[in-house]
Amino acid sequence: MSHPAASPHEADDAVLDDVVASLLRVEAAISALEAERFRQLARAHAVAAGRSVHRPRSVQEREIALRSIAAEVGVALRWHDRTAQRRITEAGALIEDFPTTVTALEEAKITARHAEVIREVGAPLLEPESRHEFERRVLTRAERDTVAGTRAFARTVAEELKPRSMTERHDDAVDRRRVWVDDDIDGMAQLGVIDSATKIRAMFDRLTRQARAARRVADASGGDVGVTDTRSIDQTRADLLCDLVLGGRPVIDPTHAHLPGGLGAIRAEVSVVIPVLTAVGASERGAMLDGCTPVDADTARHLLAEAPGWERLLTDPVTGVVLGLDRYRPTPAMRRFVRLRDVHCRFPGCRQPARRCEIDHNLDHAKGGRTTLCNLACLCKRHHVLKTETPWTSAQQSDGSIMWTGPLGRRTTDPPEGRVAFAPDPDPPPF
Ligand SMILES: [Zn+2]
Fold first, then answer.
1. Beta bridge partners of 414
2. Which of 136, 206, 212, 369 could in theory staple to 361 by disulfide, Cβ–Cβ 3.0 to 4.6 A?
């Protein structure tokens, strides 16, 4: 009896064995490279911090120096300069506060994400001894556990080593309260809020009670007074929240004596770019909100018809040329032209909507720069400060693109979003 040749299973096993061995090699190389990236970013951080050693400077000056360096790194690597600044700061903290972690990463005992968990969860430990103790214990765990497992363990250890009371920590945590927006797909977006748990729970409870009450009224009427409500509780909660934020007024209003109508009179403002065929109903192509969020055709047409508070412009379907502008809020034509042309801040990679930007002279007015369209551009507060306070310069080309030159002389060009032209006397827009 002869043995059969290696079974298909054995051949598979050999392949898988090689896959695992190869992946281990790849991961080890990546870990070593990630450690090297942290070290390089930390060098940039040291340069920003070191400058102030020789020449004492204010916190604000140090911040500006770091921003300029971050912009240099960000433009070269195609990162947003805020991202570059965050990564530089985080790498500086990692190298400074958790050096053993960086060595473990270099030796591929942990991954970069493990290292980030250690830096992030360990950050509130200000005493060197407790930080050292934290690093030692969490590293042992990180070498054999997943990132999520390490994070949970690190939190417990940090909790044990934290010298401060829950109340003190809560007071600090409350300083981080904020609201933010994330774009979603299919013309949707998410609104996030972080605030103390009691307030957030109370908000959710109130929305739920209101939604249930709305449902009870609709059910009781049985549809005979024209009240039918087919919405789910989730949908009703979302509708109520939008209604409250868009139409409500704050109970505590410090401005009511100074602003006519108080804070409640302030209305939302968003710009929407609608292809002309969509506007007249001949096409279902969507529109763009603030130059970055696509919205569906029906919503776009609804806005066009219903909402006088929206900045509106109609674009040619082929060339993207602006055909008409809303007549509701006339602003100086030049500022509007620049805002419409630029759509967002013109620093490479920045998406801050033009409406929230300042109009900057590419060549400073003080240096002879003229107030003409080809010398004006939208810059958000952050990048306006960067250009004013650091060696960064910008020059606009005849096609509206802007050439940026960093302190090291590296150059990068930001092209305009689209072309804008004003017809001498356009037909009345169809709204
Ligand atoms: Zn910007």
1. 402
2. 369
